[in-house]
């Protein structure tokens, strides 16, 4: 049995070496056509539920638990670009502070920006923003900054499709109270800004507030 296992492993290793264009390369993945590699990446995104954008503004790359990003630079770069093109991107905002999203968008190239889900594209992909409401936060300041950012067509990422949802701590009903207050401020903010993308995004946050409040009722 041990001898047969050894022979099987040797045969498998020989087959893998023969299949590789360059036997010195560590990964067989690069020997596959780019289209097939992309299909593999897409299945990974589906299985893992997308990728995560850190709130730490010094981290440019999207975070993933997939070990492929540690294979080599080419696979890592391919995988992360495929994430922009194919994956749902998740992130967290504390008290409507979206500065890390703005910083991330500003660091992307035009090609990378173009790969992100857009409002005018028929796709289910989004940049999903989980909003956690603390007891104290600068509502008006952050709301005004976000509305101004997405309103300015010159800035990067203004056409990206965002989805908002609020985290509600079921053990602490004060979270629902914070969301209710947030709804009032967002609605007032939407009415105060000119018609356009800024108002649309604030109204999307209002809709997310309504959905969160309905979950707690």
Features:
217 residues; 4 strands; F-box domain-containing protein; four-stranded parallel beta sheet
Describe the structure.
- The longest helix is centred in the C-terminal third of the chain and has 20 residues, at 197-216.
- This protein has helices at residues 2-19, 34-48, 73-86, 99-107, 110-115, 139-151, 174-192, 197-216; strands at residues 51-52, 89-94, 127-132, 162-166.
- The chain is an alpha/beta fold and 217 residues long.
- Helix 7 (174-192) packs antiparallel against helix 8 (197-216).
Give a nutshell description of this structure.
With 217 residues, the chain is of the alpha/beta class.
Q: Characterize the quaternary organization of these chains.
A: single chain
Low-pLDDT runs: 11-20
Helix content: 40-55%
Global outline: elongated
Radius of gyration: 22 Å
**How big a fraction of the residues is strand?**
5-15%
Mean pLDDT: 80
Tell me the distance between the termini.
Answer: 63 Å
Number of helices: 8
What is the SS-derived class?
A: alpha/beta
Note the main sheet.
4 strands, parallel
Strand order of the largest sheet: 1-2-3-4
Pattern of helices and strands: HHEHEHHEHEHH
Number of strands: 4
């Amino acid at each position: 049995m041990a001898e047969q296992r050894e022979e099987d492993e040797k045969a498998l290793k020989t087959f893998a070496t023969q299949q590789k264009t360059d036997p010195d390369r560590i990964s067989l993945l690069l020997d596959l056509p780019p289209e097939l590699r992309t299909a593999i990446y897409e299945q990974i995104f589906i299985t893992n539920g997308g990728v995560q954008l850190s709130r730490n503004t010094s981290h440019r790359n999207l975070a993933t638990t997939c070990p492929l990003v540690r294979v080599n630079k080419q696979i890592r770069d391919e995988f992360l670009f495929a994430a922009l093109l194919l994956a749902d991107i998740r992130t967290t905002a504390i008290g409507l502070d979206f500065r890390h999203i703005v910083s991330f968008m500003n660091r992307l190239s035009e090609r990378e920006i173009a790969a992100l889900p857009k409002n005018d594209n028929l796709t289910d992909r989004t940049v999903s923003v989980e909003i956690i409401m603390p007891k104290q936060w600068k509502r008006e300041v952050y709301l005004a900054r976000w509305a101004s950012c997405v309103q300015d067509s010159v800035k990067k990422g203004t056409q990206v499709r965002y989805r908002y949802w609020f985290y509600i701590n079921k053990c602490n009903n004060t979270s629902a109270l914070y969301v209710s207050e947030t709804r009032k401020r967002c609605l007032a903010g939407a009415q105060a800004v000119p018609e356009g993308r800024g108002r649309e995004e604030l109204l999307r946050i209002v809709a997310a507030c309504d959905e969160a409040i309905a979950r707690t009722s």
